[in-house]
Amino acid sequence: MSVTITPSITESPALARGFSLPEGADPASMIHLAPAGLLTGAAARAAVEGCHALPLAGREDMAFALLAVLIRKPGGGASAVVAPEEAVTAWAEGCGEAVAAHVAATLDRLTAPRPAFAGLSMDRPRIMGILNITPDSFSDGGDRYDPSVAIADGLAMMEAGADILDVGGESTRPGSDPVPPEEEIRRVVPVVRGLAEKGAVVSIDTRNAATMEAAVTAGARIVNDVTALTWDPNALPTVAKLDVPVVLMHIKGTPQTMQKDPVYDCAPLDVADWLRARAEQARAAGVEAQNICLDPGIGFGKTLGHNLEILAWSGVLHGLGHPVLLGLSRKSFIGRLSRGEAPKERLPGTVAADQSGLDRGLQILRVHDVPEAVQAVATWRGIGSV
User: Fold this and answer.
1) Residues in domain Pterin-binding (predicted)?
2) Active-site residue among 72, 252, 302, 366?
């Protein structure tokens, strides 16, 4: 199988001398920073102690020695330049007060420690296990439709090392139909309650405000919405009222329409800007900043090329100052890059793609195969510790 990807982000020989913002433009939408020259473990600690690198998101085990500066191009796409932090700061100061202030603030967010999310420290990778209580999910539909089976499997995931259990009662695969909230609540509440009573950190995967409230009442501690609280007009005020952590995921369109020729000016930057706006709207509605986690939404309104670019440049999301969740387990792009394997045969590709997220410092991995993910993370951390 041959896959050809045309990236929308291209390298430039140097930082744009004399760069100036278009009149009235927001520097946050024109200029993004991503950590580069990433180091892990002992190398990261030594580099930070020697003032040769900066800590990534406040972690002791990750640091970056360089910055990638991504600048949008007129008409679409972006240029990327990698340079030392000092050079980027000097360049920004030469571009005017607005650019300098934006770059300084983004640097602060890149390095600042992330608060605990749902009581879980963000100083190391966390595993979210997927529990779909549905008859029609793309990978495991019907496997756990019986609540007793779902609870038993969730407890097994906990035993295997899952930090969070993500319970969902509605498939949002491409082309799926909505499930009435009443039916969704019927499916998920017994499972949420059963797992919460055993001490699990439960996340409710829903876009419906009524389901959010019912699940949190039953013991869920996190709301995970694939539409970033845009589907249900009551979702945002409900999450603010419940005062619970929320995962805001990027989606383009709806599950019914999202894969019908999605188009972006520059996928990684468009996703980052959309998530920045949603996080700002959530904070304005009363959601605490420390209760926000971001998810780039791999596979939700993206082509193969979009997915790969977003993964390659996922580090730009650190500049928004929130933990980042990566959910790509068993998704179709893995089969498209390989030999068209069925969803349950995509574990090796899932582990490889998740490692790309670990290498970029993303904090939470959402997976179907918890024991394998836990082992992969433990191995990754072990290698990085020496």
Assistant:
1) 125-378
2) 366
346 is catalytic: no
- Residue 14 in 3-state DSSP? coil
- Predicted TM-score (pTM) of this structure: 0.95
Contact 169, 203 (CB under 8 A): no
Domain assignments of the chain as residue spans, ordered by start = 9-111, 126-384
pLDDT score for 158: 98
Residue 339 known to be catalytic: no
- Between the two ends of the chain, the Cα-to-Cα distance in Å is 38
Residue-wise pLDDT tens digits, 246-290: 999 999 977 777 778 789 999 999 999 999 999 999 999 999 999
For residue 113, give Cα distances in angstroms to 116, 172, 303.
9, 33, 33
The ranges of the chain with pLDDT < 50 are none
Is there a contact between 279 and 234 (Cβ–Cβ < 8 Å)? no
Residue range 126-384 forms a domain whose CATH class is alpha beta
